């Protein structure tokens, strides 16, 4: 149901990632939407590691905002401030809002245009192809999935993964970590735990680089990829009206309706929230769906008591291991191999994610 009356409510959405893109698309015909993002495209981020070994995959996973968001304004800039009535951007705009959604996720310095992003993937692919040995720093989902992609697509390459923690994938349970380590070892990936790499003391010897770890080991590799966690995209909020609603980790505190605590007309969705759950893309999309329904209700009727509540997600997690395999953690069991791989690893949910935004899956 669309907004009744002569004027539609002004909705500003900040952040064009998984959550923000879906919410903006869902509400573009229900409000006067302004969509603020520093880049011109939405990226299916969990497909980025596949795109590094197969750059053409990015043709489907890197999508211009205008392809799915056809009815509203796009402001290609960074939000730098919020007042009670306006959002301030880095290009000196003041954008008025009746309702505001913050979905700035994690800070990730990527290029502005889709073509520049695709060119970046071509360069990273060339970097992998031309190397005989690759060092991956970080054993979270990004580092593990990149190691898996390289090990499967380029089995002749020597891959070393260094992780500072005592086990891989510390965001999920130890059974999943053990199965992942076994799989990587079976693919000849050399995994070093409880060590850090000093990226400030790399020495070059012809085309090969020598890296030093905190355990005193030396690792020789032709190139490296840094796959450690990215900081939250909330630092800009520290000088705004929401500065006192950030928790100790910089996350926005939200209520059960996904509204920022103490605010009737400001919502937060995705990784920037303090919801106690594993931060994953499919949950961020659930945030977007709940917030969109609540905003439709508020804009059409103003009846808060009928709003939908968001219940934190379970401990389900899927991590791809190359093109065929994966490790899956469910509430009562953990499995690995081809069966969970059939769920995620072949297409990485790219077709499904495109369809959610009204696009052809292929």
Automatic annotation (TrEMBL):
Keywords: FAD, Flavoprotein, Oxidoreductase. It comes from the Eukaryota. GO terms for molecular function: electron-transferring-flavoprotein dehydrogenase activity; flavin adenine dinucleotide binding. Residues 10-287 form the FAD/NAD(P)-binding domain. Coiled coil: none annotated. Putative FAD-dependent oxidoreductase. Belongs to the FAD-dependent oxidoreductase family. This is FAD/NAD(P)-binding domain-containing protein. It comes from Dovyalis caffra.
């Amino acid at each position: 149901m669309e907004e009744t009356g002569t004027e539609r409510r002004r909705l500003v959405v900040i952040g064009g990632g998984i959550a923000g893109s879906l919410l903006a698309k869902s509400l573009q015909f229900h409000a006067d939407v302004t969509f603020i993002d520093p880049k011109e495209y939405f990226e299916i981020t969990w497909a980025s590691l596949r795109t590094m070994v197969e750059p053409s995959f990015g043709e489907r996973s890197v999508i211009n905002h205008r392809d799915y968001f056809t009815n509203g304004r796009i402001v290609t800039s960074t939000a730098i401030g919020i007042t009670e009535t306006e959002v301030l951007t880095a290009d000196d705009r003041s954008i008025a809002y009746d309702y505001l959604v913050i979905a700035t996720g994690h800070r990730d310095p990527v290029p502005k245009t889709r073509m520049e992003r695709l060119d970046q993937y071509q360069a990273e692919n060339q970097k992998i192809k031309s190397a005989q040995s690759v060092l991956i720093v970080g054993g979270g989902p990004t580092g593990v999935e990149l190691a898996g992609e390289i090990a499967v697509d380029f089995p002749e390459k020597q891959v070393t993964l260094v992780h500072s923690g005592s086990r891989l994938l510390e965001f999920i349970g130890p059974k999943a970590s053990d199965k992942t380590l076994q799989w990587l070892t079976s693919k000849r990936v050399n995994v070093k735990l409880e060590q850090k790499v000093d990226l400030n003391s790399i020495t070059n010897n012809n085309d090969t680089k020598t890296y030093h770890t905190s355990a005193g080991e030396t690792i020789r590799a032709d190139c490296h990829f840094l796959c450690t966690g990215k900081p939250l995209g909330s630092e800009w909020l520290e000088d705004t009206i929401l500065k006192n609603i950030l928790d100790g980790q910089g996350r926005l505190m939200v209520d059960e309706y996904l509204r920022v605590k103490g605010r009737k007309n400001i919502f937060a969705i995705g990784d920037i929230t303090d919801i106690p759950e594993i931060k994953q893309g499919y949950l961020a999309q659930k945030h977007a769906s709940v917030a969109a329904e609540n905003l439709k209700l508020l804009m059409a009727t103003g009846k808060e008591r009928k709003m939908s509540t968001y219940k934190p997600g379970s401990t389900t997690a899927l991590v791809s291991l190359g093109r065929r395999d994966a490790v899956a953690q469910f509430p009562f069991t953990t499995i690995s191999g081809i069966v969970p791989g059939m769920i995620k690893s072949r297409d990485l949910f790219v077709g499904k994610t495109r369809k959610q935004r009204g696009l052809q899956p292929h």
